[in-house]
Input
Amino acid sequence: MPAGYRHRSQTVFVQCRELGSLWRNGIRRSAQGIAEREEMMNVQNTIENTNTETMQERAKRIAPIIRAEAEESERIGTMTAKSVAAMKEAGLFWMLVPESVGGYGAPMTDCMQAWEEIGAADGSAGWSLMANSSGTAAAYAYCSDEAVVEMFGTAQNPKRPIMAGMLGPGGAGKETDTGIDGSGNYKFGSGSLHADWLGAGMFLMDEKIMRKLPDGSPAVRVCWLPRDQVEFDTNWDVLGLKGTGSVDYRLTDVTIPHGFHHERTDANSPRSWRLYDIGIAGLACAGHTGFVLGVMKRALEEVTRIGFGKKRPAYQTVLGEQQVFRHDFAFHEASYHAARDYTLRFYAETQAYLENGGELTPAMRARFRQNCIYVHKVAEEVVRFCYKMGGSEALRNPSDLGRCMRDMYAATQHIFVDTIALQDIAVPILDEWRALVEENRQA
Output
């Protein structure tokens, strides 16, 4: 953690006190129009970017730029050059790598709030950022010392690379004396079009037989390659998350040197920062959850703006003064804060536990995905309520609230938040509860 970094614990009470100003300030920004947004961009670009800023503050500082670029990002199918440049200037791609290689080593809760801020500005940008920053952390955390120097440089000469890619198995490879030789076809490479290195998962084969880990699951090596070894398709045409550039890509007869690949389930990083012990799955869960908190926040902001901006046909007064709307808004707004506070507390406690020498139990690891799936289910309901209340303004393009709806329901299609996983997640958690029952029975 860099000198002067201000770590702020986020409590329920502070967040609730800030709520009113968050919505009001966000609504005013949305209502000011494109011309005023551009003026804000010019002002924000003059602000000094210091190491005392938290990641959340950096994200807030560039959020007007990301908002202004959202529509163009959707049009071209990936983040605009202006958005990428703003994230680079703010250092957000490297918030989960240490200062020694040009990063910030920020607390996980701070990173999650940064993902939330960017996700609220534009869902696609928030999704891309979480994919890039968590992927960059994974490459740094689990590759060899020599590979890390080649990819990330040194304290005297940091390279600050951006990583992306599909880390699940899309190909197969054979281990040799020099590395892994393999090929593969990969889908959903979010953030790949502005990345320097691409990750790719490969089944490890021994004479056409899939290698197994001690627990019987297949061995999957996450391989990291420079982008010039990857063939991209320009095929990203989807309903939501349109600006993420989640294109397909191919690897053809490549060799990944030893040190540039690692087992996908690795959770014991050779680096000193114990946060990395949450593993790739923990990093992914944190990123997905931070993103979806941002989409919820933006949807609530937009429906509030619409609710007090005009009177709908057949309504005696504006939507925001209707009793049913107020009742339902209060419920869904509470759902957002409950999910957010639960998430931030969970990750703060987990990081403190690891950095105090603790080792995660199977139940603790299961709770990363449990939290992620739960928050997505909450977000589905919150965003759907906002969209329905938005009326025709949420339907006609361009629409910020319509984009929230499309992005939210695109996110729910990711395999990582498929609720069927809760069946397996429940097993170690139930074991923990059963142990508690037995302990109390014997007391």
Remarks:
- The two ends are 44 Å apart (CA to CA).
- Confidence is low (pLDDT under 50) at residues 1-50.
- Residues 130 and 287 are 5 Å apart (CA to CA).
- DSSP finds 13 helices and eight strands in the chain.
